[in-house]
Design goal:
The chain is mainly beta. The chain has one domain. 11% of the residues lie in helices and 49% in strands. Strands 1, 2, 3, 4, 5, 6, 7, 8, 9, 10 and 11 form an 11-stranded antiparallel β-sheet that branches. The protein is globular, with a radius of gyration of 18 Å. The two termini are 36 Å apart.
């Protein structure tokens, strides 16, 4: 009887703490096209969580969601130099810098890249960037570590 109670208690605690609030689903495999379009409640970068109330800082810039949940879309590939990349775009993020104040920005999360030139046979690294300016305009961008998770609003 005790092992059954322990198992039930462990399952209840796991359900309580492992599932994000509000029916959200934390997704480690955010790169899969089947998840999009989707609303996301948070983007998790290691120990940092970006959402409407918490920002993540890169250098002198802090980014946070402009609203409670944001639309993330999966962008079909383009191959300007023989490399086709599939991207997830998260718009309507607010970036703040002590010198210039607030401005719109957006994340470009490269889900995967394929080298379309079979002769090169090289591995193409996936990258992510924080882009300053309103989508699709970019006034400036910098590379960032890709998120570990996106928390989808379900």
């Amino acid at each position: 009887m005790r092992p059954i109670l322990r198992s039930a208690l462990a399952a209840a605690l796991f359900a309580l703490f492992a599932v994000p609030p509000g029916g959200a689903i934390a997704q480690d495999n955010w790169r899969h096209a089947a998840h999009y379009p989707a609303r996301i409640q948070a983007t998790v970068f290691g120990n940092w969580r970006m959402n409407a109330t918490n920002g993540v800082t890169w250098g002198s810039w802090t980014a946070r969601f402009g609203s409670k949940s944001l639309l993330a879309t999966y962008v079909p590939p383009s191959s300007p130099h023989g490399i086709a990349c599939f991207n997830v775009v998260v718009k309507d993020i607010i970036c703040r810098n002590a010198v210039v104040g607030e401005q719109p920005c957006w994340l470009q999360l490269t889900a995967s890249c394929i080298d379309t030139n079979a002769e090169r046979k090289r591995r193409v690294e996936s990258t992510c960037s924080l882009n300053l300016g309103a989508h699709p305009k970019i006034t400036e961008f910098f590379l960032i570590d890709c998120p570990h998770q996106l928390v989808f609003d379900r």
